[in-house]
Specification:
164 residues; mainly alpha
């Protein structure tokens, strides 16, 4: 298995692509995961890609006291540490991926106005922009998994980042 940033990219690609999303049964399930994330009581195995998408969507739609672009970085870092994870140059919080998905979710949610929370989240999870590998439409693996991209926002190198 590769080491360092290459290892991180390998694990992300292997784990994050060609995977059928787990859909949400109701709004309360999303709210429970979101609250567990905020309180750092959510069990680590439940902090999945789907949970990231659902929690961020819930925050955007129902938590006006939280600004995702500003607050999610520290909230994710805090949660990661609460479950024994680390936030380093090779694992844990990733700024570019987080900010790209926030932009994507904002646009997707705006286009689905009028539906209940879980229907909106499930529609995103089933769409191309809900896929785990969505960022790779815009970024090379080398750029996306660079230390600079993990630490801060970097512009795409393959195509302009369309977020919806």
């Amino acid at each position: 298995m590769p080491a360092g940033p290459a290892r991180s990219s390998f694990l992300w690609e292997t784990h994050m692509s060609n995977h059928e999303p787990r859909l949400w049964p109701n709004d309360e399930a999303i709210r429970r995961v979101g609250e567990g994330f905020l309180l750092c009581t959510l069990p680590k195995p439940e902090w999945t890609h789907e949970a990231h998408i659902a929690t961020t969507s819930w925050i955007i739609l129902e938590r006006p006291d939280i600004c995702p672009e500003r607050d999610l970085p520290d909230l994710i870092r805090r949660y990661n540490e609460s479950v024994g994870g680390v936030n380093s140059d090779t694992e844990g919080y990733h700024e570019t991926i987080t900010q790209l998905f926030i932009r994507t979710l904002r646009l997707s949610l705006a286009a689905s106005d009028g539906k209940v929370l879980h229907a909106r989240v499930n529609a995103i999870l089933l769409a191309p922009q809900g896929r785990r590998d969505w960022p790779l439409r815009f970024y090379s693996r080398e750029r996306l998994f660079s230390m600079d991209a993990r630490r801060g926002w970097v512009e795409p190198d393959l195509a302009p980042a369309k977020s919806g």
